Amino acid sequence: MQNIDRNGPIPIYHQIAMRLEQQIAMGKYPIDSQIPSERTLASTYGTSRTTMRQALSVLEKSGILERRRPDGTFVREKPAKLSPTLSIPVSFVRSMVESGQNVQVDLLSVKSLIPHDTTVTTSLGLHHDQPVTKFVRLIQSESSPIAYVEAFIPLTLFPDVGEKSLPGNSMHEMLFHNYGTIISEADHSIECAPATPTTADWLKLEANTAILKLESCYYDQYDRAVEFVYTHWRADVMKLRMRTTLEPQYKGDIAD
Predict the structure, then answer these.
(1) Which fold has domain 92-234?
(2) CA distances from 162 to 2, 112, 165, 221 (A)
(3) What kind of fold does domain 12-75 have according to CATH?
(4) Cβ(94)–Cβ(191) under 8 Å?
(5) C-beta atoms surrounding 59 within 10 Å
(6) pLDDT tens digits, 44-101
(7) Where are the domains of the chain?
(8) What is the value of pTM for the model shown?
(9) Omega into 89 within 30° of 0, i.e. cis?
């Protein structure tokens, strides 16, 4: 049975739709191939056929699936980009792995330094001369690079963090197991930016190619800024999808 968050803020049908979309994007179901029946998928995901019908409708409306009665449901179009559904705290790799994608994370370097980037020092609440440990990682899917990640951890809070291993390539899991640190909140900003020569080299792009640049600052259970991250996504293969719940602005009576 597929792993679905049944208590989270994202509706089950939407989670399933995004899992199927990512599987189609990765080639599990090629164009013109028939996907399993509603009954089979409902059993796979441990949900009702009504919920599964909602999930398939999402992909049908987006043009990815096509219902051909009475034969079944077929892949009409391959999604142009991968689109992991995000939750807070963000876990891109976990989202992609749970959707069945072959994801590899390589640790390129770990070193302590004095950051000259004011965005990093300001976000982490550091003085200009306070050091951090910088972790550089490369995320690949099907052996193709999709993201170049630079993470900064304040040495004032975690003096020996550079000596720790990353279980499951997860920085947050490492912080929890070694320091009891629980990531409880995060601030994110996304912008389109030109790839630097280093980023372009690792992502196999031409310099100054437009990428998706995500800046993230993570906070622990004591409201301390414990990690700042630059994630540089290849914009030609990735899109970021977020779902939010909005408080109704109008709460007046509704006429019958």
Answers:
(1) Chorismate lyase (3.40.1410)
(2) 35, 8, 8, 22
(3) Arc Repressor Mutant, subunit A (1.10.10)
(4) no
(5) 23
(6) 999 999 999 988 988 988 889 999 988 899 999 987 656 555 544 445 666 665 555 6
(7) 12-75, 92-234
(8) 0.63
(9) yes
